[in-house]
Design goal:
471 residues; mainly alpha; 25 helices; globular
Length: 471
């Protein structure tokens, strides 16, 4: 070009950012012969943020504020910063950006507010996200989706469904993102009837059954106990990606259909889809639930390497669980001791649970040494270890573990469960009596226990944690 104006320079910098050529974009940015406007600064800030280069992004933003270009950030600049914070779950920087917006009294358009909601949600500050959401006078679909996604990601599926119902009352038409999040919430709650209703609504609304929605449906039906419906959705999809294959493999695995799960894996390989780490988590889980020890050993020792993958914590956890359930405790312990990564509390807990099932106190005591040496021992592992000692009559060790739990101020959180009846999800906490049908529930529970005793059931209390010393 004979003449290059600001628009030309902005276009080439933005184009390089869009193509992932961040270093080229930066060099072009530095070579600009004229004052750089807010569009150009924002383009490069966005580029650093998209590549996860948070330090460089923040440094460039601060440089923008004091540069001789005399530019001020606009709404698009702040959205780029917030999006990067959300993607990295960087709550500290996200809060700083939020305060910057407030202190500088920047106009809160719908796009900026939605970005703030998304950032606060993904960083775990749902109260602030909800406050911002409630302040929006005319909410659009993106705003609703940001808040619903936040509830789902923070483990509040009931709130997500409640907001979805309110969205429908306000006549806001959902899209694929909305449906995927609500299906995920249904899967978390085991709400099969509601999940089916969402599936029907997909058809009525004319939304296409793409691979992302199909994966959410397979996951929902699997986790809600309807594996046949999951299979029907799966076979209807002509184009399958690795995530959909993984959802079907894992769904069959958790239902104990280990052989079927392996068959789906063979079909996946034959159709040329490359398995990933999650695939082998599903395969090893299938072997665990079906008791396929030899097959599990083979997939862990050979198939992972064949596909260029190295074992991750999850693969070790599945294999330790497989060996432990089958009674190969010493082999499982040896595998843990030879791990290429540091064992976490989940793996130690799996091993302790296997020791509990097979009443191997000797090995549990060995495992307990590693658990108790942690700076912050896992509460569940400590309780399980204490129970194993109690069942064996090792009361001195019981006292030692419980004393440690008390010194650390460790308390077991209340258990919680859900059940869906006639499309309504009911939530129960341990020792909670606030449900309006509590008397009837406890009366029915008593009748069930009485009938179970009559049929010959004898409760096994050897490994029950006694509520002593407030633990």
């Amino acid at each position: 070009m004979c003449e290059r104006d600001g628009v030309s320079w902005n276009s080439i910098v933005s184009g390089c950012v869009h193509c992932g050529e961040i270093e080229v974009a930066r060099l072009l940015f530095e070579d600009m012969p004229m004052r750089r406007n807010v569009v150009c600064w924002t383009a490069l800030i966005n580029g650093f943020g998209r590549e996860g280069m948070i330090v460089e992004m923040l440094s460039l933003f601060l440089r923008m504020l004091v540069s001789g270009d005399d530019v001020r950030p606009n709404s698009a600049t702040m959205v780029c910063l917030l999006s990067a914070c959300s993607a990295a779950s960087n709550s500290e920087l996200g809060r700083w950006v939020s305060v910057f917006v407030d202190v500088n009294a920047m106009p809160l358009d719908i796009i900026l507010v939605t970005a703030l909601i998304d950032m606060h949600s993904k960083c775990g500050d749902l109260s602030k996200a909800k406050e911002l959401f409630n302040r929006i006078p005319n909410k659009n679909l993106v705003s609703w989706n940001a808040m619903i996604t936040g509830y789902v990601q923070c483990g509040l599926p009931e709130e997500a469904i409640r907001l979805f119902n309110q969205m429908q009352v306000d006549s806001v038409k959902p899209n694929e993102i909305t449906m995927v999040n609500i299906l995920t919430a249904c899967a978390s709650l085991g709400a099969l009837d509601l999940g089916r209703e969402v599936h029907l609504q997909l058809g009525r609304s004319g939304l296409k059954l793409n691979v992302i929605v199909a994966t959410a449906l397979v996951d929902m039906y699997s986790k809600c106990g309807s594996i046949n419906d999951a299979c029907l959705v799966f076979v209807k999809m002509s184009k399958k990606d690795v995530v959909l294959w993984n959802a079907m493999i894992l769904g069959l695995a958790i239902h104990g259909n280990g052989r079927d799960s392996l068959s789906v894996f063979y079909q996946m390989e034959s159709e040329g889809t490359r398995p990933n780490d999650a695939t082998f988590i599903g395969i090893l889980s299938a072997c665990t639930h079906a008791g396929l020890v030899e097959e599990g050993r083979f997939y862990f020792q050979h198939s992972l390497k064949k596909h260029g993958l190295s074992p991750k914590l999850e693969h070790y956890a599945c294999t330790v669980d497989l060996l432990g359930r089958a009674g190969h405790l010493d082999e499982a312990f040896a595998l843990v001791r030879s791990m290429s990564v540091t064992p976490d509390s989940i793996i130690w807990g799996i091993l302790l649970n296997a020791c509990s099932i097979h009443q191997n106190v000797r090995l549990a005591d060995e495992v307990g040494k590693f658990v108790l040496l942690e700076k912050d021992p896992n509460l569940g592992c400590c309780i399980l270890l204490s129970n194993i000692y109690a069942a064996a009559g090792w009361w001195g060790d019981v006292a030692r573990v419980r004393r440690l739990m008390k010194e650390k101020g460790m308390r077991k959180p209340s258990g919680c469960s859900w059940i869906e009846v006639d499309g309504v999800v009911h939530r129960f906490l341990v020792e909670d009596t606030t449900h309006r049908e509590t008397p009837e529930l406890y009366e029915m529970l008593g009748r069930v226990m009485h009938q179970a005793s009559f049929e010959g059931y004898v409760p096994y209390f050897d490994f029950v944690q006694l509520n002593m010393d407030g633990v």
